[in-house]
Design brief:
Blueprint: H1 11-21, H2 27-34, H3 38-46, H4 63-83, H5 89-124, H6 128-140, H7 145-148, H8 151-163, H9 169-177, H10 180-186, H11 199-209, H12 217-226, E1 230-232, E2 239-241, E3 251-253, E4 256-258, H13 262-270, H14 274-287, H15 294-306, H16 311-319, H17 337-347, H18 357-365, H19 387-402, H20 407-410, H21 416-423, H22 443-446, H23 455-467, H24 473-486, H25 493-504
Antiparallel strand pairs: 1-2, 3-4
Helix pairs in contact: 1-2, 6-8, 9-13, 11-12, 12-13, 14-15, 15-16, 19-25, 23-24, 23-25, 24-25
């Protein structure tokens, strides 16, 4: 057990928990959350309401429609084969190429729909921790549209992560063995008796459960034999185990010998203590800070093993701990791009972002949903920030806070980012009219007229909104000086927007 937090539950602590266990919130959200009290607030996160009905997925991801489309595609291929039978090889090849391009364009549009759907759910959900953990598992068991190329399978995987988001890490690992998107990404469906593919066997140990150096090369080779024989129907996502393609011979893994299948390998992994320590450390670093003490890792690993690898008890322990609320913990984590974008929308109380803004922001900042860079997922922390991405963050916050009178003309012309997205496998470009007619947030909610008479009070109100805690004295004074210089006879929405942008264009705003 970790030492519990015993200090008074403050608004700043409530904001910190809402930032780390979710995607932040407006001052009203924070005050409502704070009113619950620490333990009830944590409980509301680890036992969230089911808000599935509020976020219907795209129609094409429904099983019935997927099956109907599979049959339609099958018929189209048959017709195409008949139609090209009497054509020249060159003409037949052209028709087949056009058909492939049409399917690729459809998949790209659907990938964009899937990305928008998930971003919207993270933005509006009443179960923020569930979505935050779904994002964690997406990064942990990383697969990408660039290789999978089937948005339907990525949506199914996303639902798998959500289903197990606060449940059993062990059950999720068993499920990922036969997850169609993962099979395509790590080539499990190509692993046959006599020709085992070591990709999945290696990653399941090194990246998913044990960590580097906690297994032998012989364990990898033997496990790869166990993972043979799995077949995937690309059209309906059905996974089967073909005994004729499975290596039925005895294998020795972690010192135990048997006629193991892939699922048996996962069981052997979880017979060890290491998976509990491995995932406890990673979850701590995701929610709290890097390099936790070994005593904390051991304590959290014990909680995982005692609960049979249930994640909710682990998170409850973390969010009630004294360590989670230390001054050195609060606002020391660099916001990921997705965190940055959603928290901006929440703080500015924007329920409907400008068309194309979420995907454009993700692409420019380096974290596109359903497209992690490799099987190890994204690099976090300081890797999110460089000269280009920091400037882009400032520009994105400026666009949101001040609107764009130039957007309607500029958006008609493709820019380099849009061109690059069009060339990227699995990625469709954002709308050409991204940002058109966007005029900024409703500043009457953010800074009511009554709050604009006293510059210092206005600045302090906005500091809480954007930073949920004090900023250095010099920073506060610079905000006040800027506001005084901008203020005319009255403080208009334009000046409020410029003040908000100034605050959001500081190093402090990049932290949560």
């Amino acid at each position: 057990m970790l030492p519990k937090a015993t200090t008074p539950w403050t608004l700043f602590e409530a904001a910190h928990l809402l930032n780390r266990a979710g995607f932040g919130g407006s001052p009203t959200d924070i005050k409502t959350f704070h009113a619950l009290g620490r333990e009830a607030a944590v409980e509301s996160l680890v036992n969230p309401p089911d808000d599935t009905a509020q976020f219907p997925p795209p129609a094409w991801s429904a099983p019935e429609q997927a099956i109907a489309e599979m049959r339609e595609q099958f018929e189209k291929r048959r017709e195409s084969m008949r139609a090209t039978r009497d054509l020249s090889p060159e003409e037949a090849d052209r028709i087949r190429r056009e058909a492939r391009q049409e399917m690729q364009q459809l998949d790209r549009r659907r990938a964009l729909e899937a990305q928008g759907w998930w971003f919207r759910r993270m933005h509006r959900t009443q179960a923020p921790l569930r979505e935050k953990m779904t994002l964690f598992w997406h990064d942990h068991f990383a697969t990408s549209a660039q290789k999978v190329r089937q948005p339907l399978l990525l949506m199914r995987q996303n639902e798998l992560f959500r289903k197990h988001s606060l449940g059993s890490f062990k059950d999720l690992t068993h499920a990922i063995v036969i997850d169609p998107a993962m099979m395509l990404y790590l080539d499990t469906q190509n692993s046959k008796k006599g020709k085992p593919n070591e990709n999945f066997a290696r990653e399941v140990m090194e990246l998913f459960t044990l960590g580097e150096g906690k297994y032998s090369e012989e364990d990898i080779r033997e496990a790869a034999r166990a993972f043979t024989g799995y077949s995937l129907n690309r059209f309906n996502g059905r996974v089967d185990h073909n005994p004729r393609q499975w290596d039925e011979g005895k294998k020795t893994i972690f010192g135990k010998t048997g006629n193991f299948k892939g699922d048996d390998v996962v069981s052997l992994i979880f017979d060890q203590e290491q998976p509990s320590l491995f995932i406890a450390r990673k979850i701590w670093e995701f929610f709290v800070y890097e390099s936790p003490s070994e005593s904390a890792v051991q304590a959290l690993g014990g909680i995982l093993r005692k609960s049979d690898y249930q994640i909710a008890p682990l998170l409850r322990e973390i969010f009630l701990s004294k360590e989670f609320y230390l001054d050195s913990t609060i606002r020391n984590q660099i916001k990921s791009p997705v965190q940055f974008l959603i928290s901006m929308l929440k703080q500015l109380e924007i329920s409907e972002p400008p068309a194309g803004f979420p995907i454009t922001g993700q692409q420019q900042l380096g974290q596109v949903l359903f497209m992690p860079p490799n099987v190890a997922g994204w690099d976090w922390g300081k890797a999110w920030i460089n000269t280009n991405t920091l400037l882009t963050r400032y520009n994105l916050s400026g666009f949101l806070t001040k609107g764009s009178t130039e957007a309607s003309t500029k958006a008609e012309e493709p820019d380099s980012m849009m061109i690059e997205m069009e060339k990227t496998p699995g990625m469709a470009p954002p709308p050409r009219n991204m940002g058109k007619n966007w005029r900024g947030p409703d500043y009457k909610k953010i800074a009511p007229a009554a709050s604009r008479g006293n510059v210092e009070d206005l600045v302090d109100t906005l500091i809480f909104r954007f930073f949920q805690g004090p900023v250095p004295k010099l920073a506060r004074e610079s905000f006040i000086d800027y506001a005084k210089a901008k203020k005319g006879v009255i403080f208009t929405d334009k000046e409020v927007g410029e003040l908000c942008h100034l605050m959001m264009s500081t190093p402090y705003y990049q932290l949560c």
